[in-house]
Each structure stands twice: as structure tokens, then as C-alpha cells.
Write a structure and sequence with these properties.
Blueprint lengths: L11 E2 L1 H9 L4 E4 L3 H6 L6 E2 L18 E4 L4 H13 L5 E3 L2 H7 L4 E4 L6 E4 L1
Parallel strand pairs: 1-5, 2-3, 2-4, 4-5
Antiparallel strand pairs: 6-7
Length: 123
């Protein structure tokens, strides 16, 4: 299912596939959007590594939980994957369509209620 990525063969992971992988704790989801975007809406469990300061060598390494990259639409995650490939860092793929496709598929996104500071999941 997972492979050493090359820019030309990055695996597109659907929102449903990612939802299943996250439910099984089978991957590490890395969000490459910027902090403001991450604060506004994120996929529960994603870790933030903004593309503006992206360092493939700093990514978490757990052979039991390969990395899946994610952004807003899929463009920045492809860019991050290319950086990973150049650095020899393996990724399992990226969320095709980004968090937009995730939300459109009906999966919850987590955000912070500015009035209370509490995190909320919304679909």
C-alpha cells in the first residue's frame, strides 16, 4: 500500500481511505498549511509542518505509521512530497483534494471556538 515516493508517482489517498487509516492509527497525518489555516480548521490528529518552513528531515519517523501529507487542496502537499523525495524521506501519499475534499466528503474538521477557546468538531 505504501511506497517510497517519487514526484511522479505520489499516491492520491481519498478522504474515505484517510479516515480509515486515521481510525486505525495506521498513518501520521502531516498538515503543510500555515499556522493560521491550521488554527481555523484541521483534521483531528494532524501535526503541523508548514510548507513555508518545511524540513523533511524534521518529520516524525515511525515505521509503523507512515506519513501522509495534507494541505488545503492538494497542491502544497504535492510540493512537500517533492521536497521529501529529494531528501530521501518516505511518504505514503497525500490527501487528494486536501482538507476541502475531506470536509466535502462529510468528515469532521476541528477548530477553536474563539469565544471559549474550546476545540470543536464540525462537519
Amino acid at each position: 500500500m505504501f511506497f517510497r515516493n517519487k514526484t511522479t508517482d505520489l499516491r492520491d489517498i481519498t478522504p474515505a481511505e484517510l479516515h480509515d487509516l486515521l481510525a486505525r492509527h495506521a498513518v501520521t497525518l502531516v498538515d503543510v498549511r500555515e499556522p493560521g489555516e491550521f488554527a481555523a480548521a484541521r483534521i483531528h490528529g494532524a501535526v503541523l509542518f508548514p510548507l513555508s518552513s518545511f524540513d523533511p528531515a524534521a518529520l516524525p519517523h515511525d515505521p509503523e505509521r507512515p506519513i501522509v501529507l495534507q494541505c488545503g487542496s492538494g497542491k502544497r502537499s504535492r510540493t512537500a512530497a517533492a521536497l521529501c523525495a529529494k531528501a530521501g524521506v518516505e511518504v505514503a501519499g497525500h490527501l487528494a483534494g486536501g482538507i476541502g475534499a475531506w470536509a466535502q466528503a462529510g468528515f469532521a474538521v476541528t477548530s477553536v471556538d474563539p469565544a471559549t477557546g474550546q476545540t470543536i468538531d464540525r462537519t
